[in-house]
Request: fold
Amino acid sequence: MKRTMTCIECPQGCRLEIEADGSRLIGVTGNKCARGGLYARQEIEAPLRTLTTSVLTRGLELKMLPVRTSKPIPKEKLFEAMAAVKLLVITSPVKAGAVIAADFLGLGADLVACRELKKI
Amino acid sequence: MKERELVIVGGGPAGMAAALAARAAGVKDVLLLERDQYLGGILNQCIHPGFGLHYFKTELTGPEYAGRFAGLVREDQGIEVSLSSFVLKLTGKKEISYLRPGALEEVRARAVILATGCRERTREMIHLPGSRPAGVYPAGLAQKMVNLEGWLPGREAVIVGSGDIGLIMARRMALEGITVKAVVEIQKASRGLVRNVVQCLEDFGIPLYLGHRISCIHGRDRVERVSVVEVDEELKDIPGTGFELACDTVLVSVGLIPENELLEMAGARLDPATNSPVAPGVNLTSVPGVFACGNACKVYDLVDSVTRDSELAGRMAAEYLSAGAGLS
Reply:
């Protein structure tokens, strides 16, 4: 089956022509770089997204700590991950890149801090 | 009045890049003024990924992108960073008055770089009809509320305009459990990046109404619903196409305009349509020795481009200073 897809790897947004058999990629054209081909394969087989959100803090210089998953997680797990993030409160100072929750939800990705936060 | 070699107004991506590049080009003394309590500017609230693909060849979130520069700026002994410092006045002689906690400071700069960013266009600027209830926010303000303050602006939202901030906020609100009813765009194509239409709207099943406009916001104290109508090629309403969407929140994402009050005070010419400085080239203004970079110069799509052009502004200021100009 042929279909089109927009690559979201970078702001160029290449329009990809995809040939796929269910969740098996047969061919892809229209990508201007190698990342587009990899994106198309991943998107057909099991779509992944990096989750970015912010976590409540207490006693730190900002009310919210921006966080991200260390690598993309399955798209269908985004809302489950958001529900788990809402249960977290950060009370200790963190450095940028610090792991907030290792192997978050058992998805193989860590939840990491995107910035430094000190005590008030 | 104390004399400084180079004063940069604004500690966001443009100001930080200009400061570092000016230092690298031989400027000895840089004063960087930032009105917020932190360096990084608007990047602090842009917690989504997508930054740095060109400049760093890797995908970063806004705070991560800002952090890379903020660390370098803080380490540089030749850059004095003054936070919580609000510039009140700039004269054509490059005299700057600014408030910082506990003091009103006045300095004379040999060169000035304005890296003051931009503001959001508001509901009033696009003539969005209807009543004036609570619940109508510029998209970037809502972004600050959600990402920095931890507040949700409402429960059911409609977004006016398909600029990138609006698209990013559609996803952000959807993730936070707000029902995003629609993004309504009067033009026939999205104004934002196509990747944002895909990953922010299609991923979450949020409808994008192209060629539609909000014809009325309803509600007395709080937004209750909006009327939407399809428009033709001349942007005139097409009769019989109207429908209503119940919502308690309307986000307005209809573009940005450079913030250049200081430049205007200094007597520089601004383009009345775009609010950009009228000048023969990027980063220049009509006042010698006063430069404008980043979104204060023109509104950019990518922060990577802001960094690149602002580094150039830093070098331009260094060249101006090394020619002996600006000495009083």
